[in-house]
Amino acid sequence: MEFYKMHGAGNDFIFIEDFKYKIKEECDLAKKLCDRHFGIGADGLIIVRDSDKADAKMIIINSDGSRANMCGNAIRCFGKYVYENKIINETKFLVETGDGVKEIEIILNNNNVEYVKVYMGVPSYNGIDIPLNDKKQLIDTEVNISGESYKMTTILMGVPHTVIFETDKEYDVKEGYKIEKFNLFKEGTNVNFVKIKDKNHIRVNTWERGAGATLACGTGCCASVVVAKHLGYVEDGKIFVKAPGGELIIEVLENGVYMSGPAEFICKGTVI
């Protein structure tokens, strides 16, 4: 089985093509391949397949074997992968995900992929969409978890994301573990600790549901900008988001959220 390994701002993924649907135990395979000691090592497994709804289909499975509907860094890597491997020959195309069909644009510089732009869709504060237990929404609300009080906002940005601003103190990203599994969230939540640098720049550290602390989270950066704009912390226009592994550019427009950022090839090989 041939594989490619790629990363988007340090968030790394293993890519495998499966157009003939030969892979049956997808979640077990993800756990095996993503293990950083006994496997290749990655934050997730991406399976490339044909789609009857779009130009290609992206299956995402986290390193712990759980499925994800959407991943911002993964879909940028996916866009570069299918373009450079000539699965798709256009620079604008559609990708089917668990969160619906996403629009991809490949930005070239001297015929090389400079970065990838993705339409990420429309966020939702609706507690049913997220989903939340016994709450219609959670916006800038104090929540006590294991003796610690957090002022948090939770939205659905393809997957559930909780945003916590570091206004009075900085948090260890590992605190996201207890928030991820808190009983307020029916299906768990990703957790983003956000520092406002100025009206156009923020810093985001993310604890990802099913993967732990990662060097970047595309949907998390999008969610953080959406909430920061909603609460008046940032201006309209492009917001530059610094994650531990690199920088993304997020725009919140009337029709939804756009994310732009890097996608890099690491290596390729064969799994026996």
TrEMBL record:
Q: Which Gene3D superfamilies match?
A: Diaminopimelate Epimerase, Chain A, domain 1
This entry's Gene Ontology molecular function terms read: diaminopimelate epimerase activity
Q: Where is the active site?
A: 71 (proton donor), 71, 217 (proton acceptor)
Localisation per UniProt entry: Cytoplasm
Q: What does the record give as its pathway?
A: Amino-acid biosynthesis; L-lysine biosynthesis via DAP pathway; DL-2,6-diaminopimelate from LL-2,6-diaminopimelate: step 1/1
Give the E.C. number(s).
5.1.1.7
Q: Where does substrate bind?
A: 11, 62, 72-73, 190, 208-209, 218-219
**Signal peptide from the UniProt entry:** none
Self-association and partners: Homodimer.
- What is the name of this protein? Diaminopimelate epimerase
